[in-house]
Design goal:
This is ADP,ATP carrier protein. Keywords: Membrane, Transmembrane, Transmembrane helix. It comes from Aphanomyces astaci. The protein is mostly helical. It has one domain. It contains four helices and no strands. The radius of gyration is 22 Å and the shape is elongated. The mean pLDDT is 81.
Length: 157
Amino acid sequence: KALQSIFVISTLVMLMWGSSLWMQLSFDLGLKGKKKLIDFKDDGFILKFLLFISYGFNDSILQVWAYWLMGQFSDDLGTLGRYAGYYKCVQSGMAAVSWRLGGIPISPIATVVVNWVLATIGIICAYFSVKTYMEDKSTENYEGVESPSDKKAVSLH
């Protein structure tokens, strides 16, 4: 389940950041030194609106997924508390870095690319952590239990 979820998450994230880059390029190429305002009556508003919604959707999905993944790594409450504490520490640290970078004049395209690269690195690290540290519990604790995969008739009483 964890590997399948990583592929779904990575697809959502890559679509979001690819759309962000496409949208930002359309802003930068059409600006020519002027600030472009967005109105809900504009032709392309719905695409921008859907992209903005996808930021919030992906953020919430990734947060829930991160906590679910931590829960898959351990059943010990002390260990899970340390995992959650470390996760929140890194999340808060990156929020502080983001806040500081917001005050520095950086190209919006550079910001999108940096975020996309960081998201890709995070997904790669999650993939390796699942492949390396998560044990397969699919058949554990089910020995002696009849199932259709045993190619036996399952009695239904």
